[in-house]
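Example S7 (structure tokens).
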């Protein structure tokens, strides 16, 4: 049996009543702009999903009946475009006067529309930041905007014993600040080269601890290690992201979610949130409705 969650501004009381009547649904749980149709047959759940397929104001999320948050131990989230609304490298580039040059490469990388690997793309973008004053980091950080619902999601995870991490192809200055601000367990990301004597960026980048750049494979492997560290398996993992370099960790986690994602990611993820905030992830679990 399945539960079908509807979330977004298009979920109205009238719509919920109409669907319940039309499909003879049993238990229906509701909250503002959301509803959970409980204990549906796969055929009924998919019929409702097809009925709403063209409505971009409603997210339709299918999970096993009574899915419990207590069955999960780890959540890993991309940062840029997922936990926050910004693309931090684009913001720094704009401050340095090379915004268009960098943002065009960023778009291609996130959409999977480049022959460059993620690492090559990142190195190409970071090279444009050579000799930018270190102050661009703090200036960009000051403009960071959390995604709607980000704090509520992490509060929910903390309340239910889920370890939460930012896994980002971005940079430690940002991921550590965001993870700390939200009360997350930790963060893993790449390191910008800095010439401390001159107070400028070197235009270089390395991975965590100066190693390989954290890319799609690195995010998946980090997810696996964090699950092992928590005494969990991938069946107890949640992952969400928006770009092509998130696909491997989304595919590896039991609950993989494309969040306001590029088409290539939405096409491959089992669950997609496009009309709601990041806290829509909490609605997957029955405890969020009690």
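Recovered sequence:
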């Amino acid at each position: 049996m399945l539960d079908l969650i509807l979330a977004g501004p298009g979920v109205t009381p009238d719509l919920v009543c109409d669907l319940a009547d039309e499909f003879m649904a049993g238990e229906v749980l509701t909250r503002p702009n959301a509803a959970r149709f409980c204990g549906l047959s796969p055929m009924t759940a998919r019929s409702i999903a097809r009925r709403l397929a063209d409505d971009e104001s409603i997210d339709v999320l299918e999970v096993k009946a009574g899915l419990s948050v207590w069955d999960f131990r780890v959540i890993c989230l991309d940062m840029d475009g997922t936990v926050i609304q910004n693309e931090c490298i684009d913001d720094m580039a704009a401050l340095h006067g090379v915004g268009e040059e960098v943002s065009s490469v960023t778009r291609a990388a996130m959409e999977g529309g480049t022959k460059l690997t993620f690492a090559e793309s990142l190195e190409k973008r970071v090279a444009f930041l050579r000799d930018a004053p270190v102050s661009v980091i703090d200036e960009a950080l000051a403009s960071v905007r959390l995604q709607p619902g980000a704090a509520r999601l992490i509060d929910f995870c903390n309340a239910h014993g889920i370890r939460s991490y930012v896994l980002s192809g971005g940079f430690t200055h940002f991921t550590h600040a965001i993870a700390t601000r939200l009360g997350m367990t930790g963060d893993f990301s790449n390191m910008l080269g800095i010439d401390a004597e001159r107070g400028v960026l070197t235009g270089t980048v390395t991975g965590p601890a100066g190693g390989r750049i954290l890319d799609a494979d690195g995010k998946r492997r980090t997810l696996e290690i964090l699950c092992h560290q928590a005494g969990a398996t991938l069946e107890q993992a949640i992952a969400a992201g928006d770009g092509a370099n998130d696909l491997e960790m989304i595919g590896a986690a039991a609950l993989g979610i494309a969040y306001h994602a590029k088409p290539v990611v939405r096409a491959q993820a089992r669950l997609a949130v496009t009309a709601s905030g990041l806290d829509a992830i909490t609605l997957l679990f029955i405890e969020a409705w009690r």
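Notes on this example. The chain has two domains: 1-66, 69-88+146-289.
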